[in-house]
Specification:
Helix content is about 45%, strand content about 10%. The chain has helices at about 1-20, 35-40, 45-55, 65-75, 75-80, 85-100, 115-125, 135, 140-165, 175-185, 200-210, 220-225, 225-235, 255-260, 280-285, 310-325, 350-355, 360-365, 400-405, 415-420, 435-440, 445-450, 490-495, and strands spanning about 240-245, 290-295, 370-375, 385-390, 425-430, 455-465, 470-480, 500-505. The strands form 4 sheets. A two-stranded antiparallel sheet has the order 1-2. The protein has a two-stranded antiparallel ribbon with strand order 3-4.
Length: about 525
Amino acid sequence: MKNLRRLSQILFLILFLILFIQTEYKGNDQLGLPVKLFLDFDPLIALSALLAAHTVRVIFLLSLITILLTVLLGRVFCGWICPLGTLNTFFSYFKMRSAGPKADGAPFAPLRRIKYFILIFILVAALLGWNSAGFLDPISLTIRSLALGYNPAANLMVRSAFEFIVSLGIPGLSSSLDSLYSSLTGVILAFEQPVFRQMIPIALIFTAILALNFLSPRFWCRYLCPLGALLGLLGTKQPLARVDVNDKKCIACRRCNQACQGEATPFPAGKWASRECLACFNCRDICPAAAVSIHPTREKTGRGNVDLQRRWLLACGLGAVVSVPLVKLGGGPQRQNPELIRPPGALGEDEFLRTCVKCGECMKVCLTNGLQPTFAQAGLEGFWTPLLVPRLGYCEYNCNLCSQVCPTGAIQKITLEEKQNIRIGLAMFDRNRCIPYALGRNCGVCEEHCPAPGKAIKFHEEEARDERGEKFTLKKPFVDPHLCIGCGICENKCPFVDIPAVRVTSINESRGEYKLYL
């Protein structure tokens, strides 16, 4: 069973990585199955979205499968399926190998209750309108960390390796590497080198989570994971897989405790903590006396579950009640940050914040790298939600990939025709920097790139004189606000790369009447 569990972990991790790589622009308008499939089976994401946004998406019904497995078998999702759990298991291997057979398997046992307190905080906050589950949900956390933190570094390392080998000038090798590089682009490598704001702290946080395994095996899963806490509560009874220790056979070697991945403490008999058990089967397989058995039963074979203590649960709930109003003190909608340009198809700002789980999939799939994680633009409530930064990348007119990968519907799934008629902002000219206005020379780059039918950027023509005094027609650009959709390509392509002469803000977006100035 232990080997079968390892095989399951490897296969699901490979599937996760394949879907993660698949969540990338491949040169066409349609994706295959994106990595959001794992989020669809995540009951914490479904529950927090339900409590915060009061809506249920049909796709969230898949999470009922995870709940059913948990009720019958315990935290089998954590032990056999979860990609972050698998990564933690891999790094925990070195810690468990270095520990002696007599080592205490539960050095931080009092910390087990922390994940339950985190869960209570998340659920109460969601009930009050703040969806914070995505910050610590293991699936969302893993996707965001890999997409925004590790993937850019991996792309850069591969590209740098190719460039270094080519620079060696080995005869006949360059053409082969060019072919290999071309075949990898759009399959494993992005078409353009991705760069994300805050990618270093996001990567460091995930690295720290993995490093905690050297302090205690599967530290995150044992003490911090809110999804694990939810599944632990759902799988408290787990009638089909309960651990039992035979007192007559047991030699008190404690190897079962030391090998237990979830710190469920099978020894001594009657102290097994069902909520912490990951169904890893290590305890049964390592027991030299064959004293540990895992079998179906209706009887309570252990009473080792952590005492959550009502006063601490109430304190966590009260903490959420106090925190939510403070988090929402980001200013009213009339004074939102002008840089807060949401992707096309995004729900109204309040509903968007209640629904988005900050997974980063929309940012990873954006083919121009224009979608970036927010920092302070949307306040604490909107931290790490997506916004368009035109200077880094524009919203491609013939692309709706971000709406295809959103797991919660914060970005609604829209057709390409619908997307092309959605306004996400409005471009305006700074005449002090625009070349025709400030320098008296024709430019027209913005108008050339404008994709809107009929061109949202037009010209006022007037007669002018050049440096030699000769007459010519000077074309001064202006924006037709009825046609501008705020895609940002004009700002992105402006010759002034430091502070563009044309800039897009979120005014006049389609999402809310308070933003319409016309």
